[in-house]
Specification:
mainly alpha; Methane Monooxygenase Hydroxylase, Chain G, domain 1; elongated
Amino acid sequence: MTAQGIAPQPCGNIKKITPPNIFLFFLYSLLTTPLGGVNLNRLSYKNLILKREKPMPHKILDQHLQSIRDDLLLLSSMVETALEESVTALKNFDLEKSRAVYKNDLQINEKRFELEWQIMAIIAIQAPVLFDLRFLASSLNICTELERIGDYAKTIARISLISDDIRIPHFLNTIYEMGEKTSAMLHAAMTAFIQTNTPSALRIIADDDMIDTLYANLYSELMEFAAHDAYQVERVNSLLWVGHNLERAADRVTNICERTVYVETGELSDTMPAYPHFQK
């Protein structure tokens, strides 16, 4: 008995939080979290959904989708420029250009987050389905891929800035070729995505073998170079790291191409034989 003479009652209405309930709680928290970086009258996701009394006209959705396409191409252009200038600066030992690439990576990051919030707002407000939903979901993924390619360009610029002297013309020419080809692949991949051109996307995936071959040859030649002169190990290591970043950038480009296939087919696969009818 308590001081008032009333025995406390067991809390029978309180249920143990199970994993599904935790997930629902997390989803509710996400829906009630205010949007950041998007000016939509400071509404939360929940309020945006509740405010939508009826489906938006498809014309309005099309306008939003076109805006996303334009911004994706802008972000891609920023990344292409960073990639090209990073290898050009390395080849020409242009420290000022390397510093600019390193500094401008912040703008790429900001654009990526801005675009992601726009995409999430469109999904929350207009509830797209089928092709449009696959496009928006893939665009979210591509934002990440582009930002990571930008990080590779930033890393190359950093290597150029901190390395005393890695100017070995033969190897720098190979690295420059890898950078130019990877940048061209990225441009073609983004064009294929915007146009939903699956045959083109699959051809670009096949082109990645060319980058892999260049990197394998670069690796072998650098190892042989270091074996004949132990004092070159540090320079060789820096050049290998540059080559590795370019090879990974090309892999990210193939991920973008796989998203193009997904938008059209609704299937995700990292193997070309899964879509033989597109390879004619």
